[in-house]
Specification:
The chain contains eight helices and 16 strands. The chain has about 290 residues and is α+β, with helices and mostly antiparallel strands. It folds into three domains: about 60 residues, no CATH class; about 90 residues, no CATH class; about 100 residues, 3-Layer(aba) Sandwich (Dna Topoisomerase Vi A Subunit, Chain: A, domain 2), CATH 3.40.1360. The strands form four sheets. Strands 1, 2, 3, 4, 5 and 6 form a six-stranded antiparallel sheet that branches. A four-stranded antiparallel sheet has the order 7-8-9-10. Helix 6 links the parallel strand 15 and strand 16. The termini are far apart. This is Toprim-like.
Length: about 290
């Protein structure tokens, strides 16, 4: 006879914040009525780099903590791959849109500063923008590849991907790659003493840097990506967070946690119609 367990891991797509690594990667346990039990019981999807797994015992609700596996070393992208993307900008919708908004000389300097590229290898991501994550030591963690349309907006028909996940007919380029992200623009910290501004998207950091020069603009990569493991290089610097519209309350908590400042400027000037549209400081600066 098949044994029925009192608890099981939830099979839906819902994920919660892991108590160990603080990423939204925790699959929680549910009871026979499909109700979630205590938040501490669950398994983190990051089995190698985190390994958190608290399992409720069937009889007494105690739990067992499994020892996490040894974390693998950070993987890096060889410079030859990066160099191959530093061309073909004339075919890139995002770069052409930037040039139309500003001018070619300004954007040339922006490219040299932030080192973003264009995927020239394809086939599916050919001419997409590559936002390389150069860490403070100049090593490349990986590159986020995003497709933009001619209006400078992300093409919603295509999901962003990572350079190390690209493949060819023989399989992925980097089959055992261990991604450990850093801030976009982090390489600039070594030689720049300006106060730091952190935004969500790489595009926002680029545009804001052209308007407000008193800050060094960096990007964390998303609302949920403002994480401790990315912030080490800026903890002893003057940092102001510029959250997207609607994310102020969440980032205010983060600001208090890390001793940062946080701007509510766009929250104050946004109209009722604009709220809920996910606008950011770049949208207002471009106006």
């Amino acid at each position: 006879m098949t044994k029925t367990f009192k608890y099981s891991l939830d099979k839906s797509s819902k994920k919660f914040k892991c108590p160990r690594c603080y990423k939204k990667t925790l699959v929680r346990f549910i009871d026979l009525d499909k109700n979630f039990i205590e938040e501490k019981f669950g398994r983190c999807d990051r089995e190698v780099s985190c390994g958190y797994f608290l399992k409720p015992e069937e009889d007494n609700n105690a739990f067992v903590e499994f020892v996490p596996q040894i974390e693998l070393p950070t993987s890096f992208i060889a410079s030859a791959h990066v160099i191959n993307t530093l061309k073909g900008y004339e075919h890139n919708s995002f770069t052409n849109w930037l040039i139309a908004k500003f001018d070619s000389k300004t954007i040339e300097q922006l490219i040299l500063k932030y080192r973003f590229g264009v995927d020239n290898s394809g086939p599916y991501t050919k001419d997409w923008t590559v936002f390389w994550q150069h860490d403070i030591n100049g090593k490349v963690r990986s590159g986020k590849i995003i497709k933009y349309d001619d209006t400078g907006h992300r093409d919603k028909d295509w999901s962003a991907t990572w350079y190390h996940k690209k493949g060819n007919i023989n399989g992925p380029f980097f089959p055992d790659f261990n991604l450990k992200q850093c801030l976009f623009g982090e390489h600039l910290l070594k030689t720049n003493t300006k106060p730091i501004a952190i935004v969500e998207s790489e595009k926002t950091a680029l545009i804001a840097s052209l308007f407000i020069e008193k800050y060094l603009w960096l990007a964390c990569g998303g609302k949920q990506e403002l994480r401790a493991e990315k912030l080490g290089p800026v903890l002893n610097r003057s940092v102001t967070l510029f959250p997207d519209l609607g994310a102020y309350d969440d980032w205010k908590v983060k600001a208090q946690e890390f001793g940062f400042n946080v701007s509510d400027q766009i929250e104050k000037i946004a109209s009722d119609e604009e709220k809920g549209k996910g606008l950011d400081i770049a949208d207002y600066l471009l106006r």
